[in-house]
Amino acid sequence: MAWITGAQNTWCPGCGNFAIQHALKAVLEDLVAGGMRPEEFVLVSGIGCHAKIADYMAMNSFYSIHGRGAAVAGGIALANPDLRVISCAGDGDAYAEGLDHLIFAAKRNTEMTAVVHDNRVYGLTTGQYTPTSYEGFRGRSTPEGVRERPINPLELMLASGATFVARAYTRKIDHLKTVLKAAILHRGFSFIDVLQICATYNNLTDYYAPRVYEVEGHDAGDFDAAMRLAREWDYSADAPIALGVIYDSDAPSDPWPRMNGGGAEERAEEIRRILLEKT
Amino acid sequence: MRWTMQDFSVLIGGKAGEGINIAGSVIARLLSACGLCVYMYYDYPSLIKGGNNFAVIRAADDQTFCTRETVDVLLALNQETIRLHAGMVREDTAVIYDSGVVKAGGTGLTLDAFVKEEEAPAITRSAGIIGGFCRTAGIPWATVEAVFARAIPRELDANLRVARRGYDASPPGSWIRVNGREALPVLTGNEGIAFGLVEAGLEGYISYPMTPSSSILHTLASYAGRFGISVVHPENETGAMLMALGAAYAGRRVAVGTSGGGFCLMTEGFSLAGMAELPVAVVLAQRPGPSTGVPTYSAQGDLLFALFAGQGEFPRIVAAPGSVEEAWYWAGALMDLSWRFQTPAILLTDKNLGEGLFSFAGAPPRPPLAPVLREGDGKYGRYQDGPGGISPLAFPGESGITVKVNSYAHDADGITTEEATTIAAMAEKRREKERAAAKALAAYPCVEVAGDRTAATALLCWGSVAGVCAEVAGRLGLRVVRPVVLSPFPEEQLASALLGVGRLIAVEENIDGQLSRLVGCHGIRVDERIGKYDGRPFFLEDLERRVGEVI
Ligand code: SF4
User: Fold this and answer.
1) Given this structure, which CATH class describes domain A17-253?
2) Among A144, A215, B392, B413, which has the minimal tally of Cβ within 10 Å of its Cβ?
3) Inter-chain residue contact A71 with B232, CB threshold 8 Å
4) Which Pfam families match (chain A) (predicted)?
């Protein structure tokens, strides 16, 4: 199966979205080689540069609207538990417009994987700050520099009940693949904040390169340890930036009943009984 | 009897939290068990405790849909009820009250003593007054026992003992003529919607609570296991709508329900449904005013909102039922139509219909209308050409194909495009679906006519004012013309319903005359407008007077 459509790719040269797309393609190929069906995957995207991945990947997709990807993914998961839903979102998408849906997907432990393309800038609307832009970031809507503290998405997701929390980086593509695969195979809600290079508006390669490191010997089952690691770098001040699976635990998934549907006859019979009860 | 036809009204009032709604529904079911058709209007402020609630139950040989200005029996659990409704009491009105807390003329019942002596819970006070009512109205004790057994699942014995005390302590009367007809089930409009959706194959209901739509959520949640459906209360209305669209994409028949404020949040997803060509049935239960408005009262102020909600141009099917039978029918029909034409649909209701209680005579069968599914194999494009602009449906998971839906302008495969001819072609495809939907709707009762079908003066109305208009028209010899479907606009059916009408009087529960404006856009002139916008329904006599002033 070819995983890439014929749609013309319009990402800027050097954009981190390419790395995420390639990692996703490699992981899916790998999973299909291991016996899964390509048709059981569904890609949901929001709006922004990241979202074009829905056009570029030759797979089931729902190219939704700004911030709502997690809600759409939740609906798909509820409707058909045989599907594996991967919800790609931008940082503006996930942490600004759609924060409520993301938090509740984590809270419910919905069966889905949230991949946030966190380039810490609005690319498609030409360079404004986002919820994860560092303090002092100069964007087109904040020429004097942002005077808000960034959100730390890892801390936020841990606090919201996510059962799998990870961070990856687009310039470490093999590591990204490993983490992505683990996230997709995790049962329940899995979350990856992918530090992504925006080649045009926020190229932080020089900032990330000396700071990122892959975690070793961290106990991902220990919530407190995970919280400590998540707080090591606050997305603003200078600190080492941990990459890898920060938290991984088992918990019951989505509490809402699945849609299984009864037969028309049984329903009609049930309705007749209820009408009798209501006389 | 004052009328040869039975037409009997009873009001029960008390403090918020005293279970007036349940007491009223038990009275409605008692009257229904005597073979009468019932209607109950329930009035409550947006308070959990404090304030006064009341229910008016009107029972007649034929179905009624409104209340009258006076009542035959007044049941008062508090003094406020006597004070508030003094104007509804005639000389021959029987007043039954709790003599422990109320001073009035009529039959006083020592409800607290009944409850204490029967060692029953305090909530059974209302059973005591219902017992008194039954004796006064002439309802046989056996009927009380039978109805209580069905209507009161908890503390049945205690309720019956207290009711018996009230029954024995009241003077016998004979307001009711048990007419021997089989009792009909008694349903709220919202229950009708819930069961109509289920009958039409509902698989999921996703809703954030908002009065007056919440009881659909509650009803479906309580029967979810029996129907094998999923009922979900998510984080907010935006999430509800988007979740519903995700489920529809995955092949599930889903509906969402809300009121105006919630629908504001849903318009984003509503528009997405239009572009992505996803089916979803939306129940929009109106209440008065912009913003929060008056949460527990009724209005017809969201017609133009429903018709124009969402950015861009796309087809939507909008229907406003006027009775519980129509609510049942159109909830199902909109589900069918939404799936057939892969576009969102709105069932426009209001508090008076949704929370009103009615005898249910059965919904008519719907014309069969199946979705257009992908057949055979080969290449699949989610938006490829099909008859009437309808692209055959397939769902994710199917082997060998990809199903791509898109909120952007897209090509036949669902891939984003900004190419001029494709953008235009897709706009035309959506328009074509609208025409096809209008054509299919020719087989549905999109316009209802009541009253004298030959009268040259007609009342034009929509939604829940249907019943009061029909009753007034019957008394004044007028015709009633009522579009049930409001989009696509049923031009032909409306024209034929209006044949021979020289004078048209619009009756709407809004201030702007929204239906009048809508028909005006289609070249139909309304001569007079009667509006009501205080949140309360028309009384029968009230509307009769106002119509009398303009004919
Ligand atoms: S603007 Fe930034 S994020 Fe968008 S495509 Fe260009 S490099 Fe990538």
Assistant:
1) alpha beta
2) A144
3) no
4) PFO_beta_C (PF12367), TPP_enzyme_C (PF02775)
